[in-house]
Here is the input.
Amino acid sequence: MTVLGTETGLRVTPLGSALGAEISGIDLSQPLSPERVEEILGAWRAYLVLVFRGQSLSTEEQRRFAANFGTLYERRRGGTSFAKDKYGLYDGDPAIREDPNLMLVSNVRVDGKPIGAVADGDMWFHIDSGYSERPYRYTILHAIKLPSTGGDTLFANMYKAYETLPEDLKAKIAGRKALHIHEYKRTAKVDLTKDFTNSPHYFHPVVATHPETGRKTLFVDRLMTARIEGLEAQESADVLARLFDHAERPEMIYAHKWRPGDVVMWDNRCVTHGRTDFPHHEERILRRCTIEGDPILP
Ligand SMILES: [Fe+2]
Here is the structure.
């Protein structure tokens, strides 16, 4: 166990060899000093995914905690495909319905309408808003209600994925960009034979440089990365399949088993995440904040 900030009692316990650390000795509902925010950021850069157990955050407290790490993403209303009524709204909780900074990840339905996004079942590895020009820098999830089993979130260390790639693959993707497309699916690839111009999409470097650590990282994911620019279609598909299989090997992964009260936060610039299946008749509710990001750098 690494002990940081003995004055404040923050403890950082790694969660395995791939990535992830549990932070204890802190109540996230309270305002944090700048020094403590720096400690958390230091652990975040080192471990990529941070887990805080046993928290109880109101919507306002979650928003305040998240705002320590950048500008809160604000959900747009009207005129964009993000503004669909179903997306991130919670009919049973006006505080969230009115709050553009919060979104629910949930399978719960009220009058047949999902109260949150990405409702049911398993989900392929993806980067939150990886299809946009400025993907979210961070995602911060707070567990409210969980199924009795399953619904684990799997995190992949994409620094490690890049560093351990075979040399021929590294050469193949060097300097290239890939197309990321969002089609509101959970476990199916985008069909490139159909017109996707109305789906959010963007080209990012396949190999990115993390702006704070300077480390190279693989910026692709199975769910939304559709095509590598400059490669013939079959070769692109083959290379992507090899990249995904490599990045999802067990040695890249930390699997988070949720408990109510967990706050789990990750860095979308160097981590992809997916979800395991869970009983569909059981309710799962997590409350999400995201922090605005910047263009992904090669
Ligand atoms: Fe996600």
About this structure: Confidence is low (pLDDT under 50) at residues 78-92. Residues 139 and 290 are 5 Å apart (CA to CA). The chain has two domains: 2-124+136-147+257-291, 158-247. The chain has six helices and 19 strands.
